[in-house]
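Researcher: Re-running this chain for the archive, since the previous output was lost when a drive failed. Same request as before.
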Amino acid sequence: MLTRRAALGGLATAGLFSLSPAQAVESQSGGIETILVPFAAGGPADSAGRILGPALSEHLQRTVIVENRAGAGGVTGINAVASSKPDGRMIGFATVGAMAMAPHMMKGMPFDPTRDLAYIGLIAKVSELLVVSSELPVKTFGEFLDYARRNPGKVTIASTGTGGIAHLAIELLKTRAGIDVIHVPYRGAAPALVDVLSGQVNALIADISVFIGQIKSDRLRPLALAGDKRSPLMPDVPTAAEGGLPGYEVENWYGFVAAKDTPAEIQTMLNAALNAALKDTKVVRSFNDLGAVPTGGTPEQFRDFEKAEHARWGEIIRNAGIKEF
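Model: Regenerated structure tokens:
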């Protein structure tokens, strides 16, 4: 015979699975409460997270807030998610840096992306853009590559920090194009952009969103987008492949992750809400304004994508001889 406690437990379980998906999430986890963005407020990732918040709230019928927890290129925040209670109340806004790059470079990496996280879904991709100071005597991407080859060790390219996606985009450019340029790391996009505008540094590679509002300046010249197609934000700027360097594709990306033992039904509900939000016309328009292309898909597709990115960037890091930090 069943004990009274077991019988009540069975009834509770039966009741849970008789609920709608949204009610099941509410019953087990209280729904999403927090999107944890592992960067400071005001940046592209933070903006994207705050765009998604209201749409997710609508689909999950619960208030969603955004919390910023910056540090170590996104690693600190995602580690907090990996260490959180697996109840669906906190999901992390993961990026390529913390998931696919840092594990190859960071000493004492605090989490394993494959082992310690549940993959909810891919959110969006953002291409990197190469711009040069108007003082550099080049007008096209092809001319830039020719100039760099004729002046080895003299062309300077800024990035938003050592070990980040822009730094690795520079290293990949050096390898693919066979050029010798000097990497100049900065602490963020703002100071790097200032020095390119003033002509102190020849060029800068960063997320396309960094240049919104600046690209019409007569002191900057956009040369190539490191994506598979042109951006509607800058339709006149060719891709690197169109400029003579096929295969040079560097995209930042965002995805939702949760603690690894988050129940499967909660993961499914979160994925469904994410995909629905990414089809919202307001979300799509706002993402496009940031230079981001909404993606979506299944958790399995996100996991496979991240695995491929992890392997790809590991090879680039090893070939570039980038040391741990």
